Amino acid sequence: GIVNGMDVSEWDPTKDKFLAVNYDVTTALEGKALNKEALQAEVGLPVDRKVPLVAFIGRLEEQKGPDVMIAAIPEIVKDEDVQIVLLGTGKKKFERLLKSVEEKFPGKVRAVVRFNAPLAHQMMAGADVLAV
Q1: Cα angle 121, 68, 116; round to 5
Q2: What is the side-by-side strand order in the sheet with 83-87?
Q3: Which helix (H) or strand (E) holds 92?
């Protein structure tokens, strides 16, 4: 079987080669904020530390919940100043739905429907909230 989890050395923010800024427990607040700004710029969202940034990374299959996330986005963004970045590939219907939700909420939602390991690292390091 495939073990769930992540390689803690590969994803260690003190030495992760994909991050804009490496950080540790003493520099985490500033490091995460700088990585958030880099992530916002990378995906084309307005750069603003104060806006909460939610990240979803996953396979676009029913058991991973992309349909739940897609259904929740209009409710989340309608009354809140929030940004959402979605990353994943899988079933074409979910890929199309992610792109359509991005089109409905420009400046708030970005959908990246391809495999992109460096971006996954950036999202983990820069997001305020991880939707798993």
Answers
A1: 25
A2: 109-112, 83-87, 53-57, 129-131
A3: helix 92-104
The CATH homologous superfamily of the domain defined by 27-130: Glycogen Phosphorylase B; (3.40.50.2000)
Whole-number Å distance between alpha carbons of 101 and 45:
14
Residue 60, strand partner residues = 90
Q: Are 64 and 58 in contact (CB under 8 A)?
A: yes
Q: How many CB atoms lie within 10 A of CB 9?
A: 8
Number of CB atoms found within 10 A of residue 88's CB: 23
pLDDT digits (tens, 9 = 90+) for 2-60: 567 778 889 999 999 999 999 999 999 999 999 999 999 999 999 999 999 999 998 89
The token pair that represents 23 in the structure block: 């950080």
pLDDT tens-digit map of 77-131: 987 899 999 999 999 999 999 999 999 999 999 999 999 999 999 999 999 999 8
Q: Where are the domains of the chain?
A: 27-130
State the DSSP H helix or E strand holding residue 120, giving kind and residue range, or none if neither.
helix 117-126
Is pTM beyond 0.85 here? yes
